[in-house]
Amino acid sequence: MAYLIADSGSTKTSWVYVDGSTRQEFETLGINPVRDSEEEIEENLTLTLSKEEGILPLDFTSVNTPLAHRQGMGMSPSVVFFYGAGCIPPYSDVVRRVLERHFTGASIHVESDLLGAAHALCGHEEGIACILGTGSNSCLYDGKQIVENVSPLGWILGDEGSGAVLGRLLVGNVLKSQFSPALCQAFAEETGLSRADIINKVYRQPLPNRFLASLVPFLGRHRESEEIRHMLISEFRRFLHRNVAHYQRPDLPVSFVGGIAHSYREELEEALRLEGMRLGRIVQRPIDGMVDYLTNI
After folding, report:
1. Rounded to an integer, what distance in angstroms lies between the CA atom of residue 104 and that of residue 69?
2. Per residue in 231-257, pLDDT tens?
3. Which residues span the domain enclosing 38?
């Protein structure tokens, strides 16, 4: 049986095609049906990301060719699993319709990125699965399905510990001079952003959450600063307290996918220790675990 498996966030979608010993991988633009129209999702499936993160058509001769039949791909999946941000009813129906047009005859399954994270992190075992990337989320998982989920609420009302919220806290602390003068000066020099630039990008430009998350590497470059370390640990503790603690399962390990969890593992481990919780796994690339889970059901 041939599988095509996707792990889609708001920024990019990672794909793996598995047919026996054959394995192909590529990336397209991110898809989020809460944010994107059906037409935009259709268009995004015609574009791939180069190694340099440039955006290129999958097939330079015909961007309208269905994804399953692009030059050089040779994909004929019998089953398509799409795990994506925002892929909850009724929004998941939009993604399903687009995929059905591209993969005629294949069995199409569209699930949330959170269930994908649980499959990748916990497999068939019970556990608490979390996402710490541009956004954040968590769930209690029984080895087959999500049995409880604290709503993440997005980067304005929630998404504690996420890249967007960390970026928001960073610029807030800089613009309100809550950080030391030296750290504020370093931010201005390294990013080249003025107060007016930041206000414009957050309040007047599209996708402010992506902009805020793009500032997180500054935290990594200055993580030796006690101010930065304190901010990271405090925000990770806030994520654990407002989300994970709700499940009332201190017996279960807490596992994570996402770039924030991977990049700031040391601070996350300290937050878990302070909250009396046990770390399970941290996986930067969940799609490998998704492939293992789905091809060994």
Report:
1. 11
2. 999 999 999 999 999 999 999 999 999
3. 2-105
